[in-house]
Amino acid sequence: MITQLGLWLFVTFGLQLVELTMISFMMNLVSDLSTLSEAYIGLAINKQMRGKLIEIFHKIIDIKSISQRVDITS
User: What is the helix, strand, coil percentage profile of the chain, to 5?
Assistant: First the structure.
């Protein structure tokens, strides 16, 4: 969505600008918005992967702690 917003800005306003510096600025803005959207997607995926990895570690620790318990009452 952020990339689409940036492209919409460039198509709507970028080509109407006369000065080369303003066209360059608009292209940089579109590029930054594209990079930002990729970063948000990466962060969302990373959060899910980190959550799954922590869940796996918790299961491994629980299994090891259960298997290492010794009944000392008998």
Answer: 85, 0, 15
Tell me the per-residue pLDDT of 31-45, one tens digit each, with 9 for 90 and over: 777 777 777 778 888
**pLDDT (average), residues 60-67:** 73
> How far is residue 23's CA from residue 15's CA, in Å, rounded to a whole number?
7
**Tokens 């899910």, residue located:** 48
- What single DSSP character describes residue 70? -
Q: Distance between CA 6 and CA 33 in Å, rounded?
A: 6
Model pTM score: 0.42
Phi, psi of 16 (to 5 degrees): -85, -15
